[in-house]
Write a structure and sequence with these properties.
InterPro entries: Glutamic_endopeptidase, Neprosin, Neprosin_propep. The structure is a single chain. This protein is mainly β. The protein has one domain: Jelly Rolls (Sandwich), CATH 2.60.120.1270. The longest helix has 15 residues. The chain starts with 7 loop residues before the first helix and ends in a 9-residue tail after the last strand. Bound molecules: 2-acetamido-2-deoxy-beta-D-glucopyranose (5 copies). The site of one 2-acetamido-2-deoxy-beta-D-glucopyranose has 3 residues, from loops. One 2-acetamido-2-deoxy-beta-D-glucopyranose binds next to loops.
Length: about 400
């Protein structure tokens, strides 16, 4: 176990966050601030690795990771593994095919040593794309402080969904995500497939989110990337993507959050998938995340208010932003860009859907409720395939004759 030490430097860094958060409201970051914010995001690496996709991966000492800039995590003792894994009961409906050995692109050029974690370096261009420093790495693209703030914009404004949800008392979720590389019309729009583990009403919602996304604004390219997200106050002042703000504690030296997932699926060709499991450690209360067979890290229970005990809602599916740039619906695709009715080989799916119950056991949900308000643009179709457990197809092309 490593004890995270709060150095004077950390203090300076926390102070700088406060400065940035309460500083200028100008839309364009001044270069001094960009520089400061970059220093904040990019920790001094032990080693750096150049990835073929253009990313630089910094191997940062595990105790110097961004999480420990969070005031409530100052004295946090890093855990190396959870106390419990969820119990998996053999389910005839679920076929656990041996997962393909899945590597991230940067592995071809090296690995991070033990005792470090890989962090995708934030480049100056990344920061300059952001309309404000405060909003960079945030799910909303407009800076907001509170619901009383005139700048407040509903996080779901312009967002369109095709999802399936289950309600109850949950301690985790698991799913296999079919990976695609949907077209995104403009850099400020995204297309993603993810799971949401949430508790609380709209304005206070606490979330744990994991999935894949194409989001040029955030990454500077159209690659399909692994992401995580969290908020503990309805996306108002807390939370961010990946390790973009203090919160998630990474324990693994192989998986880069925000890293490119490659290859992706082809229409009527090879299908690629990733397995994600998130569960609450019943003893310590932390929410752990596993990617394929690899334990990545955890969201400490202390980050949350309403997710401290349990989740009330587990949701899976797709989300896009529709900015209607030319007055028409966006052509940004969801999933594979095909409607779910097209089925296997063409439409994108999420399968092997399970939730973790109070006895720490993974179970296939009995009821899933679908949400597809823009179904002529993006849709979802539930299905139970004998070999795939609870699953669905989702997605769509966006703009089309029925979705002008
Ligand atoms: C961290 O530990 C120091 C020294 O024991 C203590 O003064 C401080 O209040 C602790 N901070 C938190 C956030 O628990
Ligand atoms: C991303 O995709 C869009 C739409 O297909 C294209 O216009 C743009 O040039 C691509 N951007 C990059 C960085 O490849
Ligand atoms: C689940 O969490 C909510 C919100 O924190 C709490 O009010 C409720 O008592 C919890 N339920 C159980 C069964 O722990
Ligand atoms: C999508 O659905 C939402 C919620 O019903 C609605 O407000 C929005 O106008 C719809 N957008 C389009 C393009 O149909
Ligand atoms: C698992 O593998 C078998 C044999 O390769 C294949 O027929 C089946 O479709 C696969 N099932 C899933 C759920 O991927």
């Amino acid at each position: 176990m490593t004890k995270a030490k709060l150095s004077f430097l950390h203090f300076v860094v926390v102070f700088m966050v406060a400065q940035i958060c309460h500083g200028s409201r100008s839309r364009f970051p001044s270069s001094i601030k960009v520089h400061k914010h970059l220093n904040l995001l990019n920790k001094a690496p032990v080693k750096s690795i150049k990835s073929p996709d253009g990313d630089t991966i910094d191997c940062v000492h595990i105790a110097h990771q961004p999480a420990f800039d969070h005031p409530i995590l100052k004295n946090h003792t890093i855990k190396t593994r959870p106390s419990y894994y969820p119990v998996w009961i053999k389910d005839e409906n679920i076929m656990m095919n041996a997962s393909k050995s899945f590597t991230q692109l940067w592995h071809s050029n090296g690995k991070c040593p033990k005792g470090t974690i890989p962090i995708r370096r934030t480049k100056k261009e990344d920061m300059l794309r952001a309309s404000s420093l405060k909003s960079y790495m945030r799910k909303n693209s407009v800076a907001r402080q509170s619901s009383m703030d005139p700048e407040y914009v509903d996080v779901t404004k312009n967002h369109e969904y095709a999802t399936a949800s289950t309600y109850g008392v949950f301690y985790g979720a698991k799913a296999t995500f079919n990976l695609w590389n949907p077209r995104v019309q403009t850099p400020d729009e995204f297309s993603l497939g993810q799971l949401w583990i949430t508790n609380g009403p709209h304005m206070d919602v606490n979330t744990i989110e994991v999935g894949w996304q194409v989001y040029p604004y955030l990454y500077g390219d159209n690659n399909t990337r692994l992401f995580i997200y969290w908020t503990s106050d309805g996306y108002q002042t807390t939370g961010c993507y990946n390790l973009g703000c203090p919160g998630f504690i990474q324990t693994n030296n192989e998986i880069v959050l925000g890293g490119t997932l490659s290859p992706t699926s082809q229409v009527d060709g090879s299908q690629y998938e990733m397995n994600i499991l998130v569960w609450k450690d019943g003893k310590e209360g932390d929410w752990w995340m596993q990617f394929e067979e690899t334990l990545v890290g955890y969201w400490p229970a202390s980050l949350y208010t309403l997710l401290r005990d349990n989740a009330s809602d587990v949701e899976f599916g797709g989300e896009v932003i529709n900015l209607k740039l030319d007055g028409l619906h966006t052509t940004t695709e969801m999933g594979s860009g095909y409607f779910p009715q097209e089925g296997a080989g063409k439409a994108c799916y999420i399968k092997n859907i399970q939730t973790v119950d109070e006895s720490n056991t993974l179970r296939t949900p009995e009821d899933m409720y679908i949400y597809h308000p823009n179904m002529s643009c993006y849709d979802i179709v539930l299905g139970v395939n004998d070999n795939s457990g609870s699953q669905f197809f989702y997605g769509g092309p966006g703009r089309n004759p029925n979705c002008p």
